[in-house]
Protein backbone atom coordinates (compact mmCIF):
# COMPACT_ATOMS: atom_id res chain seq x y z
CA UNK A 1 0.00 0.00 0.00
CA UNK A 2 1.44 3.46 -0.86
CA UNK A 3 2.58 5.43 2.23
CA UNK A 4 -0.01 8.20 1.76
CA UNK A 5 -2.86 5.70 1.43
CA UNK A 6 -1.58 3.90 4.55
CA UNK A 7 -1.66 7.16 6.56
CA UNK A 8 -5.17 7.93 5.35
CA UNK A 9 -6.19 4.40 6.35
CA UNK A 10 -4.67 4.82 9.82
CA UNK A 11 -6.38 8.21 10.20
CA UNK A 12 -9.77 6.82 9.25
CA UNK A 13 -9.17 3.88 11.57
CA UNK A 14 -8.37 6.16 14.51
CA UNK A 15 -11.40 8.34 13.77
CA UNK A 16 -13.53 5.23 13.56
CA UNK A 17 -12.24 3.71 16.81
CA UNK A 18 -12.54 7.11 18.56
CA UNK A 19 -16.15 7.37 17.42
CA UNK A 20 -16.81 3.82 18.56
CA UNK A 21 -15.43 4.54 22.03
CA UNK A 22 -17.47 7.72 22.40
CA UNK A 23 -20.64 5.90 21.28
CA UNK A 24 -20.30 3.31 24.03
CA UNK A 25 -23.03 3.42 26.70
CA UNK A 26 -22.34 3.64 30.44
CA UNK A 27 -22.73 0.50 32.58
CA UNK A 28 -25.70 0.73 34.98
CA UNK A 29 -26.34 -1.32 38.14
CA UNK A 30 -27.96 -4.67 37.37
CA UNK A 31 -31.43 -5.62 38.50
CA UNK A 32 -31.21 -6.81 42.15
CA UNK A 33 -30.72 -10.57 42.29
CA UNK A 34 -28.84 -10.76 38.96
CA UNK A 35 -25.83 -13.10 39.39
CA UNK A 36 -22.60 -11.08 39.22
CA UNK A 37 -20.18 -14.04 39.18
CA UNK A 38 -19.15 -16.48 36.45
CA UNK A 39 -21.17 -18.07 34.76
CA UNK A 40 -23.60 -15.22 35.50
CA UNK A 41 -26.96 -16.26 34.10
CA UNK A 42 -25.64 -17.56 30.79
CA UNK A 43 -27.74 -20.36 29.33
CA UNK A 44 -25.98 -23.69 29.76
CA UNK A 45 -28.49 -25.58 27.61
CA UNK A 46 -27.93 -23.35 24.56
CA UNK A 47 -24.17 -22.85 25.13
CA UNK A 48 -23.01 -26.45 25.64
CA UNK A 49 -23.70 -29.72 23.78
CA UNK A 50 -26.51 -30.46 26.25
CA UNK A 51 -28.32 -32.76 23.79
CA UNK A 52 -28.20 -33.85 20.14
CA UNK A 53 -29.31 -30.70 18.33
CA UNK A 54 -31.08 -27.34 18.38
CA UNK A 55 -34.23 -26.95 16.28
CA UNK A 56 -35.77 -23.61 15.35
CA UNK A 57 -39.49 -24.06 14.67
CA UNK A 58 -40.60 -21.18 12.45
CA UNK A 59 -44.23 -19.97 12.44
CA UNK A 60 -45.52 -17.14 10.27
CA UNK A 61 -48.56 -15.57 11.93
CA UNK A 62 -48.74 -12.43 9.77
CA UNK A 63 -46.81 -10.36 7.24
CA UNK A 64 -44.08 -11.26 4.74
CA UNK A 65 -42.47 -14.68 4.65
CA UNK A 66 -39.37 -14.99 6.86
CA UNK A 67 -36.07 -14.24 5.18
CA UNK A 68 -34.47 -17.67 4.74
CA UNK A 69 -30.89 -16.44 4.66
CA UNK A 70 -31.38 -14.60 7.96
CA UNK A 71 -32.64 -17.85 9.50
CA UNK A 72 -29.66 -19.72 8.05
CA UNK A 73 -27.37 -17.13 9.65
CA UNK A 74 -29.08 -17.61 13.03
CA UNK A 75 -28.82 -21.40 12.77
CA UNK A 76 -25.10 -21.19 11.97
CA UNK A 77 -24.48 -18.95 14.99
CA UNK A 78 -26.59 -21.14 17.31
CA UNK A 79 -24.75 -24.27 16.18
CA UNK A 80 -21.35 -22.64 16.72
CA UNK A 81 -22.18 -21.47 20.27
CA UNK A 82 -24.21 -24.58 21.14
CA UNK A 83 -21.50 -27.03 20.04
CA UNK A 84 -23.96 -29.22 18.10
CA UNK A 85 -26.00 -29.21 14.88
CA UNK A 86 -28.84 -26.73 14.50
CA UNK A 87 -31.54 -26.43 11.85
CA UNK A 88 -34.85 -24.68 11.18
CA UNK A 89 -38.20 -26.05 10.06
CA UNK A 90 -41.53 -24.36 9.33
CA UNK A 91 -44.73 -25.23 11.14
CA UNK A 92 -48.29 -23.95 10.92
CA UNK A 93 -49.36 -22.18 14.09
CA UNK A 94 -51.14 -24.54 16.42
CA UNK A 95 -50.03 -27.63 14.50
CA UNK A 96 -49.11 -30.15 17.19
CA UNK A 97 -45.57 -31.42 17.38
CA UNK A 98 -43.99 -33.94 19.68
CA UNK A 99 -41.13 -32.73 21.84
CA UNK A 100 -38.02 -34.87 21.40
CA UNK A 101 -36.02 -35.08 24.65
CA UNK A 102 -32.78 -34.97 22.65
CA UNK A 103 -33.59 -31.61 21.06
CA UNK A 104 -33.58 -28.01 22.32
CA UNK A 105 -36.45 -26.06 20.75
CA UNK A 106 -36.59 -22.39 19.84
CA UNK A 107 -39.97 -21.29 18.47
CA UNK A 108 -39.56 -18.33 16.08
CA UNK A 109 -42.82 -16.44 15.48
CA UNK A 110 -43.12 -13.82 12.74
CA UNK A 111 -45.96 -11.52 13.77
CA UNK A 112 -45.96 -8.75 11.14
CA UNK A 113 -46.12 -5.53 13.17
CA UNK A 114 -47.94 -6.59 16.30
CA UNK A 115 -45.11 -5.58 18.66
CA UNK A 116 -44.01 -2.07 19.72
CA UNK A 117 -40.38 -3.17 19.10
CA UNK A 118 -38.34 -5.09 16.51
CA UNK A 119 -38.52 -8.31 18.47
CA UNK A 120 -38.91 -10.06 21.79
CA UNK A 121 -37.40 -13.10 23.54
CA UNK A 122 -38.66 -15.19 26.43
CA UNK A 123 -38.88 -18.77 27.65
CA UNK A 124 -41.69 -20.93 29.00
CA UNK A 125 -41.86 -24.16 30.95
CA UNK A 126 -43.78 -26.75 28.89
CA UNK A 127 -44.13 -30.42 29.86
CA UNK A 128 -41.40 -30.05 32.48
CA UNK A 129 -38.81 -28.51 30.19
CA UNK A 130 -37.83 -25.10 28.87
CA UNK A 131 -38.98 -23.95 25.44
CA UNK A 132 -37.47 -20.77 23.99
CA UNK A 133 -39.37 -18.17 21.98
CA UNK A 134 -38.24 -15.45 19.57
CA UNK A 135 -40.92 -13.05 18.30
CA UNK A 136 -40.04 -11.07 15.18
CA UNK A 137 -41.89 -7.98 14.00
CA UNK A 138 -40.70 -8.41 10.42
CA UNK A 139 -42.88 -5.70 8.81
CA UNK A 140 -41.22 -2.95 10.89
CA UNK A 141 -37.84 -3.94 9.44
CA UNK A 142 -39.11 -2.99 6.00
CA UNK A 143 -39.23 0.67 7.06
CA UNK A 144 -35.40 0.60 7.17
CA UNK A 145 -34.65 -1.30 3.99
CA UNK A 146 -33.05 1.76 2.36
CA UNK A 147 -30.30 1.50 5.02
CA UNK A 148 -29.67 -2.23 4.94
CA UNK A 149 -30.88 -5.34 3.08
CA UNK A 150 -33.87 -7.14 4.68
CA UNK A 151 -31.67 -10.17 5.28
CA UNK A 152 -29.32 -8.12 7.46
CA UNK A 153 -32.13 -6.33 9.30
CA UNK A 154 -33.86 -9.60 10.20
CA UNK A 155 -30.54 -11.29 10.96
CA UNK A 156 -29.57 -8.58 13.45
CA UNK A 157 -32.92 -8.81 15.24
CA UNK A 158 -32.79 -12.63 15.35
CA UNK A 159 -29.24 -12.58 16.72
CA UNK A 160 -30.11 -9.77 19.16
CA UNK A 161 -33.08 -11.68 20.56
CA UNK A 162 -31.16 -14.97 20.59
CA UNK A 163 -28.49 -13.15 22.65
CA UNK A 164 -31.16 -12.48 25.30
CA UNK A 165 -31.99 -16.22 25.32
CA UNK A 166 -28.28 -16.99 25.78
CA UNK A 167 -28.33 -14.77 28.89
CA UNK A 168 -26.20 -11.99 27.42
CA UNK A 169 -24.91 -9.49 28.31
CA UNK A 170 -23.32 -10.05 31.73
CA UNK A 171 -23.55 -7.25 34.34
CA UNK A 172 -20.02 -5.81 34.11
CA UNK A 173 -20.69 -4.44 30.63
CA UNK A 174 -24.49 -4.36 30.61
CA UNK A 175 -26.84 -1.42 30.97
CA UNK A 176 -30.53 -0.68 31.30
CA UNK A 177 -31.51 2.00 28.77
CA UNK A 178 -34.22 3.38 31.08
CA UNK A 179 -32.33 2.96 34.38
CA UNK A 180 -33.41 3.25 37.23
CA UNK A 181 -36.22 1.40 35.46
CA UNK A 182 -35.28 -2.17 34.53
CA UNK A 183 -37.93 -2.38 31.83
CA UNK A 184 -36.81 -3.41 28.36
CA UNK A 185 -34.06 -5.70 29.64
CA UNK A 186 -30.30 -5.41 29.94
CA UNK A 187 -28.33 -4.64 26.79
CA UNK A 188 -24.67 -4.56 25.80
CA UNK A 189 -22.86 -1.21 26.14
CA UNK A 190 -20.84 -1.82 22.94
CA UNK A 191 -22.36 -0.27 19.83
CA UNK A 192 -20.51 -2.90 17.77
CA UNK A 193 -22.64 -5.68 19.27
CA UNK A 194 -25.94 -6.98 17.85
CA UNK A 195 -27.03 -7.03 21.50
CA UNK A 196 -26.74 -3.26 21.80
CA UNK A 197 -30.16 -1.69 22.03
CA UNK A 198 -31.38 -0.36 18.67
CA UNK A 199 -30.97 3.40 19.10
CA UNK A 200 -29.49 6.35 17.19
CA UNK A 201 -25.96 5.73 18.55
CA UNK A 202 -25.99 2.09 17.47
CA UNK A 203 -27.45 2.95 14.07
CA UNK A 204 -24.70 5.57 13.59
CA UNK A 205 -22.06 3.05 14.58
CA UNK A 206 -23.58 0.51 12.22
CA UNK A 207 -23.41 3.01 9.38
CA UNK A 208 -19.69 3.65 10.14
CA UNK A 209 -19.03 -0.04 10.42
CA UNK A 210 -20.65 -0.90 7.11
CA UNK A 211 -19.08 2.10 5.35
CA UNK A 212 -15.51 1.42 6.55
CA UNK A 213 -15.57 -2.26 7.39
CA UNK A 214 -17.72 -3.32 4.43
CA UNK A 215 -19.43 -5.97 6.48
CA UNK A 216 -22.32 -6.33 8.89
CA UNK A 217 -22.53 -7.03 12.61
CA UNK A 218 -23.10 -10.76 12.45
CA UNK A 219 -21.65 -11.88 15.78
CA UNK A 220 -21.60 -10.68 19.39
CA UNK A 221 -18.90 -8.24 20.54
CA UNK A 222 -15.57 -9.24 22.10
CA UNK A 223 -16.92 -8.81 25.67
CA UNK A 224 -19.92 -11.05 24.97
CA UNK A 225 -17.75 -13.69 23.27
CA UNK A 226 -15.27 -13.62 26.16
CA UNK A 227 -18.07 -14.09 28.74
CA UNK A 228 -19.39 -17.08 26.77
CA UNK A 229 -15.89 -18.61 26.50
CA UNK A 230 -15.31 -18.22 30.25
CA UNK A 231 -18.64 -19.84 31.12
CA UNK A 232 -18.04 -22.71 28.67
CA UNK A 233 -14.57 -23.35 30.16
CA UNK A 234 -16.07 -23.41 33.68
CA UNK A 235 -18.85 -25.84 32.69
CA UNK A 236 -16.35 -28.05 30.85
CA UNK A 237 -13.97 -28.26 33.82
CA UNK A 238 -16.88 -28.92 36.22
CA UNK A 239 -18.08 -31.78 33.97
CA UNK A 240 -14.69 -33.57 33.95
CA UNK A 241 -14.34 -36.58 36.26
CA UNK A 242 -11.94 -35.99 39.19
CA UNK A 243 -8.27 -36.69 38.38
CA UNK A 244 -8.48 -35.80 34.69
ZN1 LIG B 1 -33.05 -6.40 23.43
ZN1 LIG C 1 -21.87 -7.47 23.40
Task: Characterise the protein shown here.
The protein has about 240 residues and is an alpha/beta fold. The chain has one domain: 3-Layer(aba) Sandwich (Collagenase (Catalytic Domain)). Helix content is about 40%, strand content about 20%. The protein has helices spanning about 5-20, 45, 70-80, 140, 150-165, 200-215, 220-240, and strands spanning about 55-60, 85-90, 105-110, 120-125, 130-135, 175, 185-190. A five-stranded mixed sheet has the order 2-1-3-5-4, covered by helices on one side. A two-stranded antiparallel sheet has the order 6-7. A hairpin with a 2-residue loop joins strand 4 and strand 5. Helix 1 (about 5-20) runs antiparallel to helix 6 (about 200-215) and helix 3 runs parallel beside helix 5. The protein starts with a helix and ends in a 5-residue tail after the last helix. The model is unreliable at about 1-15 (pLDDT under 50).
Amino acid sequence: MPVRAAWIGIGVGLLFSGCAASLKEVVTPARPGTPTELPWRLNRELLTPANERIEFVVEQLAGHAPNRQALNDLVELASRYGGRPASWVTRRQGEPFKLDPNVSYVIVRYVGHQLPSFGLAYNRQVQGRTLYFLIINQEVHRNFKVLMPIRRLEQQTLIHEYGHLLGLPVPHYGYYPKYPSFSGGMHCVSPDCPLSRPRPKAVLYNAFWIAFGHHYLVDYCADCREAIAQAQALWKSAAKPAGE
